[in-house]
Design a protein that fits this description.
With 186 residues, the chain is mainly β. Helix content is 12%, strand content 58%.
């Protein structure tokens, strides 16, 4: 019994000690971070659904500067006012800055636009794509590829408007069919 008492006393004296700075640092790393799994967000404007964002995981960092991050991929399906799918945007990583609404997409960014919701019209592939909210433009400084029925264009750098109805390469190369070449001469 006496040995047990000495053993218990020795264990108490030799018990582990937490470094308070290490504990505070651990708490600070996760303080101000909100997590969500299997996210589905409906984006609407004037009571019309404009898009549906889905992601397996999301983090919202509330400390300034606040931002929302999608480190495990995201997918956004866009719709017109008749709820017909107009395009799909996917990326393996996304980040939105809450202060200025700028968005960064990177790692296998793909944007596909559709004709009447069913037939693919254009497909953009790039490594990184940024939304510049001040200029209301998508911008990329990386290698980009745009595929359309009949042609594929490549470029280093791209600018496009919000729905990709207008876009331009900064430095383009590749072969393409001019729009007037599809005129029927019968």
């Amino acid at each position: 019994m006496k040995h047990l008492l000495y053993l218990a006393l020795a264990l108490i004296c030799c018990s582990c000690e937490n470094d308070m700075n290490a504990v505070r640092a651990l708490d600070k790393d996760k303080a101000g971070v909100e997590e969500a799994f299997n996210v589905e967000t409906i984006m609407s404007q004037t009571a019309h659904v404009k898009g549906v964002l889905t992601a397996p995981y999301m983090e919202r960092h509330v400390e300034q500067p606040a931002y929302t991050e999608f480190p495990r991929s995201l997918r956004v399906v866009f719709y017109n006012d008749s709820l017909i799918q107009t395009s799909i945007l996917t990326a393996n990583y996304g980040r939105m800055e809450e202060k200025n609404n700028n968005i960064l997409l990177r790692d296998s960014v793909v944007f596909i636009s559709y004709f009447k919701g069913m037939i693919p019209k254009e497909r953009l592939d790039c490594k990184e794509l940024k939304w510049d909210d001040k200029r209301k433009l998508f911008v990329s400084n990386t290698f980009c590829r745009v595929a359309r029925p009949g042609d594929t264009l490549y470029g280093q750098g791209l600018e496009a408007n919000q729905d990709f109805s207008w876009w331009q390469f900064i430095n383009a190369y590749g072969s393409f069919l001019p729009p007037d070449s599809m005129v029927n001469f019968d």
